[in-house]
Design goal:
By secondary structure, this protein is mostly helical. It has 5 helices and 2 strands.
Length: 94
């Protein structure tokens, strides 16, 4: 996850920072949730921390999720080799 300093530097009415520790705790606590729900939880926690305090900076979050899928080239190469055919080039495979 990538985040702007506006997330960790969000201030509450007592001028206390949300901080990296709270951010990491929130992420840890929502680690088994779908990515969108985990991001929503971070936004909710920052908003709850801030309360009625004004926003002084942008709050930006970017998260990437790796979703493995079946390889396309390897099975084709293995099948062609087992059939005695020449392997496809990468360009031919796609």
């Amino acid at each position: 996850m990538f985040y702007s300093d506006g997330v960790t530097e969000s201030l509450n009415l007592s001028d206390e920072l949300f901080g990296a520790t709270r951010l990491f705790e929130t992420l840890r606590d929502s680690a088994r949730q779908p990515l969108g729900k985990a991001l929503s939880e971070v936004v909710s926690q920052v908003a709850a921390w801030r309360g009625a305090a004004p926003i002084h900076d942008d709050l930006s979050l970017l998260a990437l999720e790796y979703a493995p899928r079946q390889p396309l080239v390897e099975p084709t190469l293995a099948r062609r080799a087992s059939e005695g055919q020449r392997p496809l080039s990468l360009a031919e495979a796609f």
